[in-house]
UniProtKB/TrEMBL annotation, chains A, B:
HAMAP family (alphabetical): RecR
NCBIfam families in the cross-refs: recR
Keyword Methyltransferase applies: no
Protein family: Belongs to the RecR family.
InterPro entries, sorted: DNA_Rcmb_RecR, Rcmb_RecR, Rcmb_RecR_Znf, TOPRIM_dom, TOPRIM_RecR
Name of protein: Recombination protein RecR
SMART domains: TOPRIM (SM00493)
Signal peptide bounds: none
Top-level division of the source organism's lineage: Bacteria
Pfam families, A to Z: RecR_C (PF21175), RecR_HhH (PF21176), RecR_ZnF (PF02132), Toprim_4 (PF13662)
Gene name of this polypeptide: recR
Keyword list, A-Z: DNA damage, DNA recombination, DNA repair, Metal-binding, Zinc, Zinc-finger
Function: May play a role in DNA repair. It seems to be involved in an RecBC-independent recombinational process of DNA repair. It may act with RecF and RecO.
Length: 199, 199
């Protein structure tokens, strides 16, 4: 009976398993919630319940939404003929925050991995190929992580789209905005040098 | 409509205000919860709701509990005649985890502070003095932080208890277990030297 009540202990234990949290930070958060319980703890409980109830994957692109098909897939202004392929919903959200892309998305939900036995069918790659035909797509942008797994998956998709009349592109690699050369790894520096552009 | 739905955005914004979290970690946590929503998101919502509904301060000591008077205050085995005075419920929980103290507690909920206009009445110090008389207390242990505010409060309480027939003690100061002298501040080293003990 250390932490107040069984419910409080169960809540702390559950919070402690969330990414980036541990027992200490979970205790701190739960205590803060209880201290301000009049303000927003009940509201947070209701929100959590509603999100748990209503969230689902968009039937078309795999984005998280509370409808059958997400707002991006139903927005006619975003039928630009471009599909941006991302590994994860978090990547989609990051791209949306950047507001640089006005087309539609396709969330793979992972990368190809022989080790974890993840093949093209597990990632919805057949669905992507179908969409490219059905939605009259002119360009597929592979916005995958610049890791070995991400690039393997990008190459696989590029190969699979070889026959289709569609442009396949990837994100530029180079020096990040605000990046200092001294702190960058060798691979990034050589990539940026190889892809140098005239000013 | 970046992050899925209005509810998801509201949940992220609310989580981002919790101690130790920010927008990035809140997004990561909410996404993880949604991914595993079948497992425990609903359960967490219910727990949060129940804790918000049932939590209150113990009428005697100020501990967080789901009853009128907390389990420590009602446990007859803990009527040892000792009261441990702590600043915060988190400190009480920390002492309980250590399992070194078997008496009862008194949570101040803060420290005296002229700057923030917090006086003895705001901290329930009169209630503490009443308890010392009513519960036949023989020792008051001031387990307050070793900060200026904490020690000011400790001195104030020690003064207020001067007339009562009660022993007033404070936590020992010295080298923490596992502490290396080289990394300790000068104040701690001199305190540990002054309070040296024969072996």
């Amino acid at each position: 009976m250390t932490e107040g009540s069984d419910d409080i202990q169960a809540l702390i234990a559950m919070m402690a398993r969330l990414p980036g949290l541990g027992p200490r930070s979970a205790r701190r958060i739960v205590l803060q919630l209880i201290r301000k319980r009049g303000q927003n703890m009940t509201q947070m409980a209701q929100l959590l319940g509603r999100v748990a109830q209503n969230s689902r994957e968009c039937a078309v692109c795999g984005n998280i939404t509370d409808r059958e098909v997400c707002g991006i897939c139903t927005d006619p202004e975003r039928a630009t003929g471009e599909i941006c392929v991302v590994q994860d919903v978090a990547d989609l959200w990051a791209l949306e925050r950047g507001q640089a892309f006005r087309g539609r998305y396709h969330v793979l939900g992972g990368t190809l991995s022989a080790l974890d036995d993840i093949g093209p069918d597990d990632l919805g790659i057949p669905a992507l190929l179908t969409r490219v035909g059905d939605e009259r797509i002119s360009e597929v942008i592979l916005a995958l992580n610049a890791t070995v797994d991400g690039q393997t998956t990008a190459h696989y998709i590029a190969d699979a789209l070889e026959g289709a009349a569609v442009k396949v592109t990837g994100l530029a690699q180079g020096v990040p905005i605000g990046g200092e050369l001294d702190y960058l790894d060798d691979g990034t520096i050589s990539a940026a040098l190889r892809a140098r552009r005239s000013l």
